[in-house]
Amino acid sequence: MKALEQIGLKVLRRIDPETAHGLALKALRAGLGPTSGPFTSPRLRCELAGLSLPNPVGLAAGFDKNATALTPLSRSGFGFLEVGAATPRPQEGNPKPRLFRLAQDRAAINRFGFNNEGMQPIADRLAQRPKTTAIGLNLGANKDSSDKAADFATVLAHCGPHVDFATVNVSSPNTEKLRDLQGKAALSALLAGVMETRAKMDRPIPVFLKIAPDLTPDEIAEIAEVAQMTGISGIIATNTTLDRTGLHGPHTGEAGGLSGQPLFEKSTRVVAHLSGLTNLPIIGVGGVSNADQAYQKIRAGACAVQLYTALVYGGLSLVDDITRGLDALLARDGFTTLADAVGSGRADWT
Q: 164 with 205: CB under 8 angstroms?
């Protein structure tokens, strides 16, 4: 980590987390982030649902909710980006404070509630996006919507022409009854509507499903079955957790979704379980903060990984460290391609 970045992170951690996040985005737009672009190699180059990526390390949704920092993020080292979540209409989300650092656990709890400017301004920015990086959009539903399932298709129809993939997010714990849509019947109907909308697009794009980590084995099996049946392109595992086991500090009892280091083991076990149930590509998310953890998720069955909370503690230079470290780990173990490593250690997690 560069000295200037260390100083900046120390300053940001002294102020309110949501304010600090806004300042970090402003700093990126001002040109203060990395500019070297993604590190790549023959081992790291990979295909994800038809997308050609320079490396398998992506930015998770939530960091750039309104797609305001697309150009600087495209230069920061990620192999792909996911922005949003976007809802049809703008909404303020839940009352503040709604973001809490758990520094001792290298974690965070948020209860944002899909705060965003709505699909129209987000689509306008995506229309002007850089084309050098694969960019996806996390689809959300308005809190007061009378038909949350229809909201996902609405956002896809409006913003889909400007992105490379879309993610159906039914796993945020911060919108009432949203996780109910993970049930077999509700999920089948929702995804059928989304895929019908996708089929009408001039350029049908990959559609992923983002699931919660707090699912039983039977529920995971149902989701895998529905995913195969509906023809989606892959699964993102996982969103934040409601589990509070083993946390430290004054914010452990805050309502919302927990992300960061405490989620690593739980989310990786979901990846491993899913990879034994489906051949669909899996993106592993949750607790990735170094190259070894990215490697473990890949060996558990993930074709790519995403991170977000680790940036709070490690800064954007962490992305380059992870990609270079991952390349070295693949070489150490004799893998000539990333695909060769996917699932090679699944038995360690099942």
A: yes
